Amino acid sequence: MASETIVLLSSREIEKMRQAGRFAAELLDHLETMVKPGVSTLELNDEAERWTQSRGAKSGPLGYHGFPKSICTSVNEVVCHGIPNAKQILKEGDIINIDVTPILDGYYGDTSKTFFVGTPSPMAKKLVEVTQKCLDVGIAEVKPGAKIGDIGAAIQEYAEAQGFSVVRDFVGHGVSNIFHTAPQVPHYGTRGKGKRLRPGMVFTIEPMINEGTWEVEVLADQWTALTKDRKLSAQFEHTVAVTQDGVEILTLSRKVAKV
């Protein structure tokens, strides 16, 4: 991470983040319409790139530290940073997290959702629903004067109470006209610990919740992270801003919310 200094964004910068976040939410909604058996993850990637370029924006992941594609597509036991490819064909019962980060007017809109491919198994359904709730309970902790640790503690308490585990190796992060910056936002932890939240802070909350162990392995491609036990993993992500009296979700879909 380039700097431990937390930059508070101005109202003008937060408006830029709001526009980028709205753009990211629209991209994710668009890609959701393609999620069905028989579609390759490369097709999702190529449509994301086409859609983004056609609207005058760029794909933040493309070329970032050498990442080769425009979005991340993480299927079943892939925790995060799955690389889209032509051979990976979605099949009935899969779950897929699609993580998008378009850059609009220099600012990054970062969001992800886990989608069902056809009809999920009961375990997959429960895991995805719990993971979405984990994001909700984490966001509910965000307000001026709260601590970073409050977010992770709420997520960990809920996930573990449901019989699932929280990935430790990847965390939320500050985001603005820089993709990843301070603060780091763990999805586990202790209430009352960590940096104090202040208006103008903008960061992602992106819990990765596993069916089995929280431990992960990264493949030789240096990106694809899998659950160590090869059981399912799900993730949801929003970019949020700390406001004077609470929190604003900058990547909220304007569609009726659904998993």
Automatic annotation (TrEMBL):
NCBIfam families: met_pdase_I. Keywords: Aminopeptidase, Hydrolase, Metal-binding, Protease. One of its GO terms (molecular function) is initiator methionyl aminopeptidase activity. Monomer. Removes the N-terminal methionine from nascent proteins. The N-terminal methionine is often cleaved when the second residue in the primary sequence is small and uncharged (Met-Ala-, Cys, Gly, Pro, Ser, Thr, or Val). Requires deformylation of the N(alpha)-formylated initiator methionine before it can be hydrolyzed. InterPro entries: Creatinase/aminopeptidase-like, Pept_M24, Pept_M24_MAP, Pept_M24A_MAP1. Residues 15-244 form the Peptidase M24 domain. This is Methionine aminopeptidase. A divalent metal cation 2 binds at D110, H173, E206, E237. The gene is map. HAMAP family: MetAP_1. Pfam families: Peptidase_M24. Substrate binds at H81, H180. Its EC number is 3.4.11.18. Binds 2 divalent metal cations per subunit. Has a high-affinity and a low affinity metal-binding site. The true nature of the physiological cofactor is under debate. The enzyme is active with cobalt, zinc, manganese or divalent iron ions. Most likely, methionine aminopeptidases function as mononuclear Fe(2+)-metalloproteases under physiological conditions, and the catalytically relevant metal-binding site has been assigned to the histidine-containing high-affinity site. Belongs to the peptidase M24A family. Methionine aminopeptidase type 1 subfamily. GO terms for cellular component: cytosol. A divalent metal cation 1 binds at D99, D110, E237. The keyword Cytoplasm does not apply. Its cofactor is Co(2+); Zn(2+); Mn(2+); Fe(2+). PANTHER family: METHIONINE AMINOPEPTIDASE (PTHR43330:SF27). SUPFAM superfamilies: Creatinase/aminopeptidase. One of its GO terms (biological process) is proteolysis. It catalyses: Release of N-terminal amino acids, preferentially methionine, from peptides and arylamides.
